[in-house]
Amino acid sequence: MEDVAENRKQFIDNLAHEMKTPLTSILGFADLLQIKKDISEEGRIEYAGIIKEEAARMRTLSGKLMELITVGEANIEWKSEDMKALFEEIGTSLKVVAQKQRMQFVCEAESGQLVVDKELFKSLIYNLVDNAIKASNEGGKIQVSGYFIKEEFVITVEDNGIGIPKEELEKITQAFYMVDKARSRKKGGAGLGLALCAEIVEIHRGSMRFESEVNQGTRVIIRMRGGKENEE
Ligand SMILES: Nc1ncnc2c1ncn2[C@@H]1O[C@H](COP(=O)(O)OP(=O)(O)O)[C@@H](O)[C@H]1O
Ligand SMILES: [Mg+2]
Q1: Which of 178, 180, 185 to mutate to test the pocket of ligand 1 (most atoms within 8 A of CB)?
Q2: C-alpha closest to that of 154 among 84, 221, 204, 103
C-alpha cells in the first residue's frame, strides 16, 4: 500500500512538473508579445513559434495522459482479429509517417487469429514505431513483425537507431521517464508512451522486453496470449 501511495505521489509530482514547464514558457512569451513595444518581425515569429510548440506539447501530454488513465476501464472491446490484415492496416497508416522522415518501414505478420482490442493494439504499435522513428536518423530502417509460436503471438519492433544504455532499460517503461529529456522534449515526447504500452500489453496477458545496443539499435519483443475470450 505504501508503495502505491509513493508511486502515486511520484506520478503527480512528475505530471505537475511536465505541465509547469510548457505553461511557464507559454505565459512568459505571451507576456513579451503583449508588453514589448518595438518587437521585430523575427521576434514576433520566434515568440509565437515557441508558444505554439509548447502548447502542442501540452496537447500531446494531455492526450497521452487520458489514454493512460482510461486504458483498462470498462470499454475494452475484445474481438478476434486476423493479424496479417491488422498489421497491413497499421502498416498503411504508419508508412506515410516513416516515409516523411525518409526511413524504410516494413510491417507484416503471419496470418492467424488473436483476440485483441483493436484500438489499444494499434496504439501499442503506433507508440513503439513512434519511438523507433524518434531514435532513428534519415535512412534508418524500422521493421515490425508478428508471428505465432504455439498459442502465443510474438511481435517485434526493431530499429537501427541510437539505442538505449543497459542501465536504463528497466526504467524506460516508468511514466515520465526519458533517457535524454532534452532530446525527447524536442521531439514532442512526454515519457508516457511506454507506460501506456506496458498497460496495453498487460491487458492482453502479455510481456514486453527490450534488447538494445547503444548506436546499433533496439528491438522490442512482445509476447501475448490475447484478450478475454481466450480465458478458460
Ligand atoms: N526504440 C528506442 N530507441 C531508443 N530509445 C528509446 C526507444 N524507445 C524508447 N526509448 C527511450 O525510452 C524513453 C521512454 O519512451 P516513451 O515512454 O515512449 O517516451 P517518449 O517517446 O515520450 O520520450 C524515451 O524517451 C527514450 O529515451
Ligand atoms: Mg514514445
Answers
A1: 178
A2: 221
Overall number of domains in the chain: 2
> pTM for the whole thing?
0.86
pLDDT at 18: 86
DSSP per-residue letters across 89-125? HHHHHHHHHHHHTT-EEEEEE-S-EEEEEHHHHHHHH
Q: State the ligand closest to the CA atom of 132.
A: 1
Nearest atom of ligand 1 to the alpha carbon of 195: 17
- Look up residue 190 and give its DSSP letter: -
Is 122 found in the same domain as 48?
A: no
CATH number at residue 26: 1.10.287.130
What is the CA angle 89-92-97, rounded to 5?
Answer: 135
**84 and 65 both lie in a single domain:** no
38 and 87 both lie in a single domain: no
Examine the domain organization and report whether 190 and 224 are in the same domain: yes
CA of 178 to the centre of ligand 2 (A): 9
pLDDT digits (tens, 9 = 90+) for 131-148: 999 999 988 999 999 999
Say yes or no: 144 and 194 in one domain.
Answer: yes
